[in-house]
Structure formats: structure tokens, C-alpha cells
Amino acid sequence: MSANPSTSDHLADGEHLAVLGYEDSFNRSMSLWANFALGFTYLSPLVGVYSLFALAVSTGGPPSIFWLVIVGAGQLLVSLVFGEVVSQYPIHGGIYPWTRRLWGRRYAWMAAWIYIWAMIVTVTAVAEFGSGFLASLFDIPVTKEVTLLLSVVFLVVALGFNFSGTRTLGRVARIGLAAELIGVIGVGLYLLIFQRHQSFSVFFDTMGVQGNGPYITAFLGSALAGLFLFYGFEACGDVAEEVENPARRIPRAMILTILVGGVSSLFAFGGYVMAAPDLQSIVNGKDADPIPGILQAALGDVGAKIFLIVALTAFLSCVLSLQAAASRLLFSFARDGMVPGHKWLAKVSPRSKVPTNALIVACVIPLLICVIIYAGPPELLTQITSFAVLGIYVAFQSVVLASLRQRVKGWKPAGPFNLGKAGFTVNVIALAYGIFAMILLAWPGHTGVFLNDWIVLIGLGIVAGTGLIYLFAARPDRKSTAPEGDAIHVAELLRARR
């Protein structure tokens, strides 16, 4: 791949943005490392591994750790495709402007509609899960009322940080990055070196999890161990107009997010497996929340409390990054006149240079969902978040598909980050991987309860269906005159400025 200044690299950030039809209206105060930290804390290996460890091991046994490698490799290919796109289109909002410029307005509307709801639900879920850690730190019984109150605290505190501006967002993201690395790599290494109760051969031992059937079925069922984890790198591109030299730095930040996130996850997952005093009980599903017990046994009371503080920092940073990414997507959507209330949503604070109204929406809707969860049955959180990951993968693959379509039509990406002749092959494999991942995510369960078995597709169907109804009833695409489907033309313009 190339990062040589042979295309648009010599253009100043404002000039590059002007070629794309926009004015430079944000503070470009986010460095490469702050941008990487934003993506990494959104991906959040600590949150992902903690949330999925018991499910993965009880479904696929210790070998389920290999899904981290499989999915990490697949998402790395997707990040390379994204890197070429954002290098040509370093615009706020990520998925929405990329799909618009690669395909068209209606296509972009659906991709962004699905993605924004998936992100908002994910913000809610992370705040809800984080409330349990906060309650544990202060030894507060976890009731529905406590969960609601502490979830609101997470969302409002994150909103306050986001209101402060891009510099604060970058600082908190870097603090969250440090907390993540301590919590996953530091603790993972400690468990692997000093607290081993298993041999390394355990990762090739199914421990009878397949029962009387073939192990491949159990292994495929544990794919969530990776599929729920390796996204978030696209958030690096959501804030493109607040990054210095984004055409070069954002692709690097995306790749770093995947690579460091993958290594971190392997250390954490592997450490928990190796340090589990009674791994068989976890495999048998008798211990639904084994990590606190593992940490308590390995770190003691004081160490476990310190880990809780580190984990809370990671959760808060994750909520902060999600809010920021969602608000920039809303802003980008609104700037092109593609959403109700677009003039209000597209306003940027003259003081902090952030889209404050979009941030408010990215906080208020998750707050409302938290109230609905509080008033609903216990399984409601799982049900309403089930479609989120599939929705995110659908949105990701909409970019991969649109990119491949433009390549077939003759597009040669003109950003400074360029895969050259390998780009087409990477694009094809990334799409094939994405289709495989979406099939695994959408595959119905086998509980015999219709809603539980089909909830992922039902959730996606509701979101996509309402989006289609609004698209064809209100026709927001007719009210928008922003550029679309111009990848080949923009590439020619950028090359002409060499």
C-alpha cells in the first residue's frame, strides 16, 4: 500500500474539503493518537470480552478464542477498504457520506438510517452494562432503579465531556485507551503468567461442548466472540473534519484500532480462560458471569476494586466515543438536508466547534430507551440490542459493496492512502467476509420461541422498514442537492491538483 504524496496528499485539509464541496468549519485539534484512541475505545476490547466471554466459552469452548483471529482478519480487510474511501473523502459522518459519494442519496439514506439506530442502541447498551460495574464499585445492589439511574449518569457525564469540544474528547479518549490497555493487556498478561490454572493446550480442547453432534456446529455458534467485538474503527472517520491531515492519518488509525484491539482481546480472553479455577463449570454454562470470580481469585479484594475503576473508565470512554460518532453522523446527515429538523441538527457551536444539537439527540434517545428498558421485561435489553451488531455489519458492507461497484465502473481511489492493484482483490474478499458474517449474525436460534429465535432479523426488519417508509413517503432525497455518486469525478479532480 502507498502513503506517498502522489495524489491529493499535497492539498491542505481545507482545500481537500473544498474539492468535496464543503467548508472547513471545525477545529482540527485531533492528532493521530487521539483519533486512534477514539476508535479503540469505541471498539473497547475490555467491554466486548467481558460481555461475551461466558457466552463464547459455554457455546464453543476454549477454541472459541480463534474467532478473534478470524473476525479480526476479516475486519482488517474492511478497514483497508474504508481507508481508501476516507482518504479520498475525509468528511464528517463516515458511513453516510461515503455511501452517498460512492453510490447515491437513497442508498446512503438507508445505510445511514440503519447505522444510526444501531449506534444509538449500542450507546444505550454500553451505558446499561457499565452501570453494573459502577454499582459493584460502591457495593450497591443492582436493581432496575439503580441500573436506570447509573445509566443516566453515564450518558449525561459523557455528554458533558463531549460538549467541551474536540480537545476534551481526544484527552478522555486517550485516558480511556490507557485504561483499556491496562485492563486487557496488563491484566491479561498477569493472568497468563502468574495465575495459570490450565495449560495452553486447552485452546484445542472442546471440553465436550459439542455434545453428541459435530464440533463445527458449536464453533460456528460461538462466532459472536469476535463478531460482537471488531467494529468501532469506523468512528475514526466519523470525526474526519476535526483531524489534522485526515486523508493520511485516519486510515492508519483504523488499522491500528484493529491490530491493537485484536492483540488486546486475545490477551484478555486467553487470560480469563487460563486463570479460571473451574473452567469446566463455565463451559457447562453453570457460571453465567465468571469474570468477577476469576479476578477476585487472582487479584484479591483490592486488585478487583482497582480493576473496577479501570473498567469504569473504559466504559465511560466507550460511551463518550459512541456519542461523538453518532452525533457526527447525525450532523453529516443533517448538513445535506436528509433528516427532519436538519437545520437545527446541523448547527455547530461557535465556542466549542462541535455539533451540540446532534450531541443532545445522541444522548436523549438512549435516555428514552433506558426508560423503556426499565419499564419492560428483563429480557428487553437483549431483544432491542440484538439487531445492533447486524445493523452495523449491514452498514459496513454497504460501503464495501458501493466501493466495489465503483471499482468495476473504473474508480481508482485518489487519496494518499492507496492499496494500488491489490485494492480490487481486498475489496472482493472483504465483501465475501461480510456476507459470511451477516449470515452468522442473522441465523435464527433454536429455542423454539419465535421472538427469541428471530429477534435479530425482526429488529433489522423494523428499522429498515420504517426507514423505507419514510424515504418513499417524505422523499428527503429530493430536498438534498449535495454531491452524490461522484467517486470517479472527484478522483480526477484530486489527481489534477498534483
Summary tags:
Amino acid/polyamine transporter I; 498 residues; disordered N terminus; mainly alpha; 71% helix; globular
Describe this protein's structure.
The protein has 498 residues and is an all-alpha fold. It has a domain at 8-91 and 116-376: Amino acid/polyamine transporter I, CATH 1.20.1740.10. The protein contains 20 helices and no strands. The chain has helices at residues 13-19, 32-43, 45-60, 66-88, 95-102, 105-137, 144-163, 166-194, 215-221, 224-227, 235-238, 246-275, 279-283, 291-335, 342-345, 356-375, 380-408, 422-442, 450-474, 487-496. Helix 5 (95-102) packs antiparallel against helix 6 (105-137) and helix 7 (144-163) packs antiparallel against helix 16. The longest helix is centred in the middle third of the chain and has 45 residues, at 291-335. It is globular. The two termini are 19 Å apart. The model is unreliable at 1-9 (pLDDT under 50). This is Amino acid permease. It holds the Pfam family AA_permease_2.
